[in-house]
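Researcher: Let's try something more involved. This one mixes different molecule types, so please make sure each is placed in the same coordinate frame as the others.
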Amino acid sequence: MVPTAQQFDVVVLGGGPGGYAAALYASSAGLSVAVVEKDKVGGTCLHRGCIPAKEFLETASVYRTVAGAKEFGVQAEQPTLDFSVSQARKQKVVDQLHKGLQTLMKRRRITTFIGTGRLGPDRTVRVSDGTELQGNHVVLATGSVPRTIPGFEVDGRFVMSSDELLAREELPASAVVIGGGAIGCEFASMMSDLGVQVTLLEALPKLLPGCDKDVVNVVARSFAKRGIDVRTGVTVNGHKPSAEATTVLFGEGEQVTADAVVVSVGRRPLSDGLLDEGTAVEVDERGFVGIDERCRTAEPGVYAVGDLVATPQLAHVGFAEAIVAVKDMLGESPVPVDHASVPWCIYCHPEVAFAGLSEEAATEAGYDVVVKVDPYGGNGRALIVGEAAGMVKVIAEKDSDGKAGRILGVHMVGPWVTEQLGQAYLAVNWEATPEEVAQYIQPHPTLSEVFGETVLAMTGRSLHA
Ligand code: NAI
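Model: All components are placed in one shared frame. Result:
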């Protein structure tokens, strides 16, 4: 017990999506809240992750649109890129959101302490400037940092993580991206569209591990067509820098020389130095804080959410976990987050979005399945916007009569699928059947008709699919 500690209903460590969501939701329930943040509220997502990355992917989209304008009869010169302007625009978007978040937190009377927080016994938190806080409840939400691999430490010259790439004033002429997960594919796609010669090296046999194989094949075909050199099933064996560039050694004696190397091999939880002696909070060998289904750690009154815990590292999962944690503090009985069915959105070109089981995962889990795939190629709006590559794939459990029963997963790849996932996510989580979903109308002409046609076709009759 620290007598001088300032008292709050909730003390939150970390002001990223998990932490600020906990703070905002708790304050909306009338609780007094303190947030301890060592840098800026908004965290990785706002300053070094989701928002800046998607902003640059939008720059790539504008570039593609201008380059393809002729097809629409619109005469425009071949586009050129001033990436410093793109960087400034990205920063403007980030700064505006940052300011908005700060204002919102102030309006909600959330007290922000700038410094590094450390959890001690009895839910006390010591901030690096000496301030002591005590919460009736504490939420740990210190997030994650990019993982590195031996021989590819960030060096201020050639090797970068997402943090450095997103802060650059110009793009390299060529780049090797190590890791073909969400971040690797988004960066490879963005850089390639903006004229960078990209080689993508992935250790596993396919890009985007965890995504449905048919979806991955559409992305891989598009990448190949656009000149991204994708090499899967390869390990990297170090790199040899010279004055101007560096040569990455990989596979069985292969090599590629590039101006930059972007390492995107996952993120690790930031639990280093988070805990003082005397708390029962458990941290596993990978650094993740252990929680139960209501985000409670082993220390009474202490919760953990977001990238710090071993659940999907997605900002919106952090939001959902924060709400569960606060509801639990309030003595309500929150429905736990179903981590197997969260929405996933990957903003490479073409976009990927899914919720629930892939065909492989459903089969592996022992389900007898009915699968229907419908391409965007026959959809009016897709042809209008000139983005016909892609498809919607619905996986349903096969009922005893052979018909499609509960929808287990919906996997999409193609134009604006990240904006179309919502109703598919609801269908999966509502455990709806194609018959139930198909009775609802999709507006025409829209891209979302492809999902509607797919579920309609699964009822045994169809219009176009
Ligand atoms: P990731 O875990 O999704 O992908 C890392 C990839 O690197 C994997 O495919 C892995 O097989 C590969 N890899 C690992 N070691 C390697 C090596 N030595 N050589 C070659 N390949 C290697 O991690 P990523 O893409 O860095 O993203 C981090 C986290 O952030 C993930 O949980 C991801 O889901 C999340 N995220 C999600 C986004 C989205 O949903 N749009 C965007 C950005 C990040």
